[in-house]
Design brief:
12 helices; alpha+beta
């Protein structure tokens, strides 16, 4: 990782490397799914709640970022609390039906134990996770719910997902194609995951400083503050509590520029760096459980006209929305090979692509719960580009024009309209 300057900005030499990292982190998907996918790709949170300001040796931003980069915690166990508030309207029954549709009903269309479906629940609400790790071959993440528990376990060659509520089991193997890995990594779930994504976004449009100290989960920590220098972005600030001894991020906070509660609050409430018991990673399907092998899910997707595997689906997204290094724009207008056009730079980057069809229909045209959902999210806008609808969250916004062009970014409505006007 390129070093950081110890003042409020990165140096010119670092900017090129960091800008490349930010481009590689750029992934855009057409709304309405953008509100979920983008939230999974970019983590957010409120100001770090700590129990004191420990007296620690002075450290520069460069030294603290290097400390994070060198952190190599192999063994740990603990509890993580993560809260996400994108500011979406209450979907009522629609939210439940969409979730069940995504996970499958257990009738052969999918498995409620499939990580690609289960972990997407983290994009809204408040959740408690238990995590454990013992080197690169043994990890466990458990999502604790009111009346059930979901666990994702990697032990050697085996990858297991278990949903106690439905008594369903997902099984994959680590030496198979990366489909199971794609599923488990799709949603950043720990402060370290979220911090790595945030650091990819740092370039010369960003201020990086050390903002005092904190105590998180009983451990002394430094606060790393990441703030956009540009106006027009929906990102206000990102704060990371970094363990003073190990360099591991303990808590991650992203607050929106609009103020109010953070979009996500993800942090350890308890953590230990002792070696977990080997039995922590043992798993045997319970008697009577329905077991779905990874290959069965891939085959079912192919039968229904979808991608044959998660790996193939990711490749399709990469090709369509800017894979192979991401959009390459130095500001103004740019376009990567096989990627979308990008307008602007840094935190104000807006990805542009053409759906090849008409814009999103109005709620009255769609009708029902989905129609109400679309109307609650969208604002009609006009400009030199014509007219369209802006879909809003507290972080990612998207403008879909009536002629089918899509403008997506972590920017406000005015910035989207301006980008669309400049493209004409």
């Amino acid at each position: 990782m390129a070093p950081y300057a110890s003042d409020d900005s990165t140096t010119g030499g670092e900017s090129d490397d960091l800008r490349v990292g930010r481009r590689r982190a750029a992934r855009y998907v057409v709304p309405v799914t953008v509100v979920g996918v983008a939230a999974a790709t970019i983590g957010l949170v409120p100001a770090i709640a700590d129990s004191g300001d420990p007296d620690l040796p002075k450290i520069t931003a460069q030294q603290l970022v290097e400390k994070i980069a060198k952190s190599d915690v192999q063994q740990l166990s603990g509890t993580v609390k993560i809260s996400t508030d994108l500011g979406l309207p209450d979907l009522g029954g629609l939210e439940s039906s969409l979730a069940s549709g995504a996970m499958g009903s257990g009738s052969g269309d999918g498995s409620s134990a499939d990580p690609s479906a289960k972990l997407t629940e983290l994009v809204s609400g408040t959740h408690t996770l238990r995590v454990a790790a013992d080197g690169p071959d043994r990890q466990k993440l458990s999502l604790l719910e009111k009346a059930s528990e979901y666990s994702l376990i990697h032990n050697g060659k085996d990858v297991w997902g278990y949903d106690s509520g439905s008594n369903e089991v997902f099984h994959g193997t680590a030496d198979e194609p990366q489909a199971h890995k794609e599923r488990s990594e799709k949603v950043p779930a720990t402060p370290k995951d979220l911090t790595e994504e945030a650091l990819k976004a740092v370039d010369d449009t960003t201020s990086v400083t050390v903002d005092g100290t904190a105590q998180v989960a009983g451990r002394d920590a430094y606060r790393l503050l990441i703030k956009p220098k540009q106006s027009g972005t929906t990102v206000g600030a990102i704060t990371v509590a970094v363990d003073a001894r190990t360099g591991m991020p303990l808590k991650f906070t992203l607050t929106p520029s609009s103020g109010g509660a953070a979009v996500i609050d993800a942090g350890f409430t308890q953590v230990s760096f002792a070696k977990p018991a080997a039995s922590t990673f043992d798993f045997t399907p319970p008697k009577g459980a329905k077991v779905t092998e990874e290959g069965e899910l891939e085959g079912a997707a192919g039968e229904h006209g979808g991608p044959k595997s998660e790996e193939e689906f990711r490749k399709e997204l990469d090709k369509e929305f800017g894979g192979h290094g991401g959009p390459k724009s130095e500001g103004g207008h740019g376009k990567a090979s096989d990627g979308p056009e990008v307008i602007g730079e840094g935190w104000n980057s807006v990805a542009v692509f053409d759906t090849g069809g008409e814009g999103v229909p109005s709620g009255s045209e769609v009708g029902g719960d989905m129609g109400g959902f679309l109307d609650s999210l969208g604002d009609k806008v006009t400009g030199d580009f014509g007219s369209g609808t802006v879909f809003k969250t507290r972080l990612i916004n998207a403008l879909i024009t009536d002629d089918g062009k899509v403008y997506v970014g972590a920017v406000d409505k005015n910035a989207l309209v301006k980008a669309a006007d400049s493209a004409e």
